[in-house]
Structures are given as C-alpha cells and as structure tokens.
Amino acid sequence: MVLPYGRQSIDESDIEAVAQVLRSDWLTTGPAVETFEADVARIAGVPDPAVSVTSGTAALHTAYAALQVQPGDQVITTPLTFFATATCAMWQGAEIVFADVSPDTGNLDPESVAERITERTKVVAGVDYAGHPIDAPALKKVAHDHGALLLEDAAHSIAGLLDGVPVGSLADITTFSFFPTKNLTTGEGGAVVSPNSDLLERARMFKGIGYERKPELMQEHGGWYYEVTSLGLNYRLPDVLAVLGSSQIKRLERFKTRRQEITDRYNEGLAGIEELILPAHREGASPMWHLYPLRIQDGRRRELFDHLRAGGIGVQVNYIPVHHQPLFAELGHRKGSCPVAETYAEQEISLPMFPDLTDSQVDEVIGLVRGFLGA
C-alpha cells in the first residue's frame, strides 16, 4: 500500500452533515451555501460572506473577472505554482509576466515584481507556496504604487496568518481551493474573499451566470423577473458540497496544529544533512502547511523520488515551472528568465503531509530519506 503525499480527512460528522443535506429540499443554491460562505469569511477575517465556487481554478477565474482583467492588461505572477494561476488570467485576455521567487519560501519576490511591473500591469498574483503566506505588505505596496491590485492565491493556506492578520484579509482579493488534498475539502470547490465589497459583488455576479433578481424589479414585473447585466459562468457550489466544508471548518484548527507537528517532526528528523534544504518559516508567519517541500541540492532529486516511490511513499513534485510548459514557450517565455524559481523547482520534492499522517509514518519517510543519503 502506497502512503500518499496528501489526502482528505473525513469523519462521521462530515458524512452525517452531507446526509442531512441529501435528505433536505436543497441540494444547491440553498442555506448550506450561505452558512459555508459565512464560515469562510470568518476564517478569512473579512466582513462580507465569501463567494463560493466549484473549484480553486474557478475561484481564480472569478477573481480575475471581478478585478476586470481584460485584453491589453498584464498580470504578474510566479512560475512556481499550478498553472491555473496564470491560465485563468489568460482566459480574461491578459498577458502573463513571470517574476522570480524568494529563495527561502518559494513565494513571489517583491523586488523581482518591482523590476517587471509596468503601466499595463493590472494585477500582481502571489501564491502562498506550500502554505507559507506571501509577503503581502511588500507586494501590495509595489502593486498599488503602480496602480495595480494584489491577488493572493491562497489555495494552500486557508487559516494561515501573517503578523496576526488572517490570510484572506492581506490582499485586495484572495482565492481558496477545497480540493481533497487541501487543508479542508468540499470534494471539489473554492472561494473568493475580499475586504472590498464591490469586488465581491462582481465576483458573485460572475459565478452566478451574470444575471440579477432585484427585488424592486421583481415587484414591478413579477416574481419571475431577472435581468442579464454582464457575462458570467455557472460556478455555483452546491449545498451538498458546501455543508462538507462547514463541517470540516469545525476541525480546521486541529488540522493546522497537526500539520505543524508533522512539519516540526520532519524538520527535526532531517536536520543537519548537508544535501538538504528544509522549508523556511519567516518570523511573523503562521503557515497552514499544505506541503512539506524538501529540497535536495546534489542533483539526485529524480533518484530520491524513485527511491521513495519504490519504498511505498507517494511523494510528489510541486511544481514544473509554468513558463517551461509548451503553451508558454509558444508565447515567447524562455527558460532562464526566473533562475531562483527554476533552481527551487529542480530540487523540490513534496513529502507526505496530511492530518491523519501518524508519527510512525513520518519517521518511516525520514528513515528512507536518510538512508538514501547515507545520513
């Protein structure tokens, strides 16, 4: 049996919550969605309910639409991410500009962004790589100084904090993912949050197919009346998934504590090995560790990957740099343009990380890594 690098944590309370919705009159567009959106907003520290959507990718697309990204705009982002951070902006017509990352966290480097930002930049999109929050204050200043806005792709980091401020309150707009391997799951799902009510209203319109049912117009024309006022897509998260998210949120702090315990155990067990770089943890950050991104510096990442897989450990690599993908090569992006991110990606291997991982399983992984290196 292979030990996965990530997996969902489902208990009987989750199953019963979903069963209750299945027994109800509302499978979608009902009260469980409203409850979940309020729950996510509370975790994110924002005043208005979140906009729930069908996936983390849908959350990114919805956020870019809310930010009114359009052809001619530039979006600056990191190459060390899942490619949807970039491609969702492309669906809105944006030109993608890749900036480099900081060597310690793998997060978007504000200095690199400052070097590449232009008057055409509409959005700076940072990613909380592995669950460590971006340097939102610095990135926000660079963006705002040039008339742009900051999007935080927090697919890895719901319940994270930076200097006591929740992830979700740090940027102009923030997106979450609730895929099964993430820090809480709705099966598939995502959300958009923002301190800006206007941005959120645009997001809600976009994910709701772009139509409105205003009470005053319904009173005038009839209870069936609606108006299509903008283009949108059906990205609505159903109640049967939303209720799973609300159930999971009740255990979110427990998940976070356990992920930190696992990170600490890996750090202790792998310390002092010259070939390895362990994940950075900056002062003031309280990460929600989604990954344990180990880096091996001796060029044997592929050998270590195969060694661990042969030992029944389902490790992963996060990520192939986005600008190395054929789609982006065709658009003129070239290897060597983000050397720090490229080096990071060449060295990185994600060890198993999920709340139900036991100490003995962590120790097994540590033993296999140390054995490979003769440490």
UniProtKB/TrEMBL annotation:
Question: For this UniProt entry, which residues form the secretion signal?
Answer: none
- UniProt GO BP: polysaccharide biosynthetic process
Cofactor(s), by name:
pyridoxal 5'-phosphate
Question: Which source organism does the UniProt entry give?
Answer: Calidifontibacter indicus
Q: Give the Gene Ontology MF terms in alphabetical order.
A: pyridoxal phosphate binding; transaminase activity
The name on file for this protein is dTDP-4-amino-4,6-dideoxygalactose transaminase
Keyword terms: Pyridoxal phosphate
Catalytic site positions? K182
Mark the residues carrying the PTM N6-(pyridoxal phosphate)lysine. K182
